[in-house]
Amino acid sequence: MYSSKHAFIYLHVSKTGGNSIQQILLPFSEDKKVVSGHQDGVDRFGLTGSITPEKHAFLERYEQACPGISKQNQVIISVRDPYLRALSGYFSPHRWMQPAQNGGFEMRAPEWSKTAFLAYLDSGQLPAATDWLRLAGAVAQPDHVIRFETIEEDLARTTRALGLNVDVSGQMPHVNKTAETGTLKQELAQDLALRDLVLDRYKEDADQFGYG
């Protein structure tokens, strides 16, 4: 997400609460929502603009569109504990959508499989958060980091720093909620062996953002 008026670039790392953040920042941006397929415009949507190529654009894509843009604007990124982010990605609603018999889409009940989970990570569908910041092979330092764990507090701090006239307190929408509505996800979050495996895969993220 990009705003020339307020001089910021928001990097929406998938599964870090970014849809909620973009709902707050969108009025200050030149970008617009786009909807296709099973997207509903609230929980699931796309984003595009004259500079922004798509909702989850890497900083490198912004640089390709407008060289020097990362130096001329404040860079914001949202991040999350890599293991919990990976679980959220696996149980993300879009992965369990299927065509409905009467048209449209419906969500089937998610199923847990460690093999499928590791295959999902191997597929590249969940890039490392540091990939969003990589320029010419090096990881750029963002101006603002919004952590999923303290999302409202961090977003409020960021909007104040940008001079945006918005009250974040109590306004954060809870969108794109997990497809796993039982206790399975919470139980898996306690699997320390699996957590160590994921943190090893996303070691750069864990080191960069202090998740151990």
Give a written overview of the molecule.
The protein is built from nine helices and ten strands. Strand 1 (2-3) and strand 2 form a beta hairpin. Helix 4 packs across helix 8 and helix 8 packs across helix 9. 33% of the residues lie in helices and 15% in strands.
From the helix content, strand content and strand pairing, which structural class follows?
alpha/beta
Count of DSSP-assigned helices: 9
Order of strands side by side in the largest beta sheet?
1-2-5-10
* Order of SSEs: EEHEEHHEHEEHEEEHHHH
Radius of gyration: 17 Å
Helix content: 25-40%
Termini Cα gap:
29 Å
Mean pLDDT across residues: 90
- Coarse shape: globular
Number of strands: 10
* Main pleated sheet: 4 strands, mixed
In terms of DSSP E residues, the strand content is 15-25%
Uncertain segments are none
Number of domains: 1
Secondary-structure blueprint:
Blueprint: E1 2-3, E2 8-11, H1 18-25, E3 32-34, E4 46-48, H2 59-65, H3 69-72, E5 74-79, H4 82-90, E6 97-99, E7 105-107, H5 114-122, E8 134-135, E9 138-139, E10 144-147, H6 151-162, H7 184-188, H8 192-201, H9 203-209
Parallel strand pairs: 2-5, 5-10
Antiparallel strand pairs: 1-2, 3-4, 6-7, 8-9
Helix pairs in contact: 4-8, 8-9
Quick recap of the structure?
It contains nine helices and ten strands. 33% of the residues lie in helices and 15% in strands.
